[in-house]
TrEMBL record:
Protein known as: DUF21 domain-containing protein
Main location: membrane
Cell compartments where the protein resides: Cell membrane
Cell membrane found in the keyword field: yes
Record membrane topology: Multi-pass membrane protein
InterPro entries xref list: CBS_dom, CBS_dom_sf, CNNM, FAD-bd_PCMH-like_sf, FAD-bd_PCMH_sub2, Ion_transp-like_CBS, Transptr-assoc_dom
Keywords: CBS domain, Cell membrane, Membrane, Repeat, Transmembrane, Transmembrane helix
Transmembrane spans: 12-33, 62-88, 94-115, 136-159
Length: 434
């Protein structure tokens, strides 16, 4: 046999291995490509990405065409390698065996593993590129692929298996979305990431969780002397104040300080003016999710709502700002003494107001006070004791030593919290404990 025919055969074998590698890589690229990235690029007008999405929409055809050609070149390579072996060494058994082992090695290294590793690493970049030749191959081999898939779907049917459905890939649960956001790495800045994650949580947080508790509400009591009311209005920190009548149980309306201004200027100001100025209070049930509340505020053109329990009893108030803070963190415009700077003192204790919100306390002090019951520290202590405590009493809730410092009007006003002992560490001396 002439020399050039051997070199032609060897060159063809190398070419077949290269093609085989290309198909292996393509298979991994298409399977590993991120559909969401492709979708966003396709939406931005990228033709390759759109082709890739089209191909991924028909997984059976896609795999069919890739595997058809991959197997075609692999088998051709095997046949050619036998021809070359016989050419070089005659029909010796050992030579045919050695040729098979050698070819297997080459296919694994150059046509399977290496191309697949490369494909997996650059899947997102390569998918739109390989989609051009793939779409072409799919067109020219349409009938062959269809014919092969006829048998595939027949077999799947016999085995009672369902072919892959595109829909299953397309929809994401909130949990999957959350982990995608958390793992987005450098693609999404950390601040945006935390906003997105918080957004998923809005459904699970109720207005009661984030409201300003009743004990901390700044309000106007119309039964107070007018001087006192005037003084109160002049020093009010807040813009919208609930107005109470007599028994301080019934809110007659919300006073917006800006609306008061006109009256103050024409000095026609007194109880009656306030009564005329208040707007109708807007009530919401305590178990409304803050996501729903956000929509309510929007629909009702409101910024503040009074939170009530199932008996209509006032529990607290919530404003738009309270909800937005859950998304993007605290604003610096909140009341200076609202406990924003709560932190452990040097002696490992801290004085806090009984009206403090448990969620916030847990967050600021790293505590684990239970959140499934009452929302405020006062509520928690009263529930724990089933009684109105005396000042000086000490209890322990969720490993946190708590000392009631001052009670007033059947409420726990001031409380001293002690830092819980770290697990395993020696318990620090706490009041009421030997
Ligand atoms: N009358 C009030 N008494 C107690 N807390 C209030 C009162 N009004 C608002 N808050 C609380 O103050 C925080 C800031 O809310 P927001 O900014 O809506 O009120 P504001 O500062 O009084 O009004 P604005 O910012 O429109 O002037 C929120 O945590 C809210 O619950
Ligand atoms: Mg404000």
């Amino acid at each position: 046999m002439p020399e050039y025919s051997l070199s032609l055969q060897l060159t063809s074998l190398v070419l077949l291995l290269v093609f085989s590698g290309a198909f292996s890589m393509t298979e991994t690229v298409m399977m590993a490509a991120n559909r969401y990235k492709l979708r966003s690029r396709a939406a931005a007008g990228h033709t390759g990405a759109r082709l890739a999405l089209d191909l991924l929409g028909k997984t059976d055809r896609l795999l069919g065409v890739i595997l058809l050609f991959n197997n075609l070149v692999n088998i051709a390579a095997a046949t050619l390698s036998s021809v070359i072996t016989i050419h070089l060494f005659g029909e010796e058994r050992w030579a045919l065996g050695a040729g098979t082992v050698l070819l297997t090695f080459f296919i694994l290294v150059f046509s399977e593993i290496t191309p697949k590793v490369i494909g997996a690493h650059h899947a997102d970049r390569l998918a739109p590129i390989v989609s051009y030749p793939l779409s072409f191959l799919l067109k020219v081999s349409y009938f062959a692929v269809w014919f092969v898939n006829l048998f595939v779907s027949g077999l799947l049917h016999v085995l009672r298996l369902k072919p892959v459905q595109e829909e299953g890939h397309a929809s994401l649960s909130i949990e999957e979305l959350r982990s995608m956001v958390l793992e987005s790495g450098q693609y999404i800045p950390a601040k945006h990431r935390s906003i997105l994650v918080n957004l998923f949580d809005l459904e699970n947080i109720t207005v009661e969780d984030v409201m300003t508790a009743r004990g901390a509400i700044e309000s106007i009591d119309l039964s107070a002397p007018e001087d006192e009311i005037r003084q109160h209005l002049a020093t009010s920190y807040h813009t919208r104040l609930p107005v109470f009548e007599d028994d301080s149980e019934r809110v007659i309306g919300i006073l917006h300080l800006r609306r008061l201004l006109g009256h103050v200027l024409d000095s026609e100001f007194g109880r009656e003016a306030i009564r005329e100025l208040v707007s109708k209070p807007y009530f919401v049930p305590a178990d409304t999710s803050i996501y729903t509340q956000l929509q309510f505020f929007q629909e009702n053109h409101q910024r503040m709502a009074l939170v009530v329990d199932e008996y209509g009893e006032l529990l607290g108030l919530i404003t738009l700002e309270d909800i937005i803070e859950e998304l993007i963190g605290k604003f610096t415009t909140s009341v200076p003494d609202s406990g924003d700077r709560v932190s452990w003192g040097e002696d490992g204790s801290v004085l806090v107001d009984g009206s403090q919100n448990l969620r916030e306390l847990n967050r600021k002090l790293g505590l684990k006070l239970p959140l499934d019951g009452p929302k405020t520290l006062n509520g928690l202590i009263l529930e724990h004791l089933q009684d109105i405590p005396e000042g000086g009493l000490s209890i322990k809730i969720a490993d946190t030593p708590i000392e009631v410092v001052q009670t007033q009007d059947r409420m726990v006003r001031t409380v001293r919290l002690f830092r819980p002992a770290a697990p395993g560490a020696e318990a620090p001396a706490t009041p009421g404990e030997a």
